[in-house]
Amino acid sequence: MPHNAIFTEQEMMNDALSAEKQLITAYGIYLAEASCENLRSQLTRIITEKQQIQYQIFDAIRQKGWYNVKNANINDVQTAVQKFQGMQQQMQQQ
Asked: For residue 3, is it within any domain?
């Protein structure tokens, strides 16, 4: 992009949302690999903070009408919960 490129508010907010999602993913990987309890605690705290920031950005974008979200059908939610509970049980039995 040219040096004088001007980004819209929507582009900047979408970029910020994307960055927060990437940070949450990266910190999650670090947490999964950490063996030091103090480090794990700090990473968990950071992830929680990042999730709050990510949601605030998402909610602002949604309120401006730039991110359309449809409400989930209750049957779809129940099906997803059952599916993942089944997967969790299978993993625990192994």
From this structure: no
Q: Is residue 4 part of a domain?
A: no
Cβ 13 vs Cβ 61: under 8 Å: yes
pTM for the full model? 0.73
Would residue 54 count as lying in a domain?
yes
User: Using alpha carbons only, what angle is made at residue 42 by residues 48 and 58, rounded to the nearest 5 degrees?
Assistant: 20
In whole angstroms, what separates CA 1 from the centre of its chain? 28
Per-residue pLDDT at 25 exceeds 70: yes
Q: pLDDT tens digits, residue range 72-88?
A: 889 988 998 999 988 88
* Residue ranges making up the domain that contains 72: 9-93
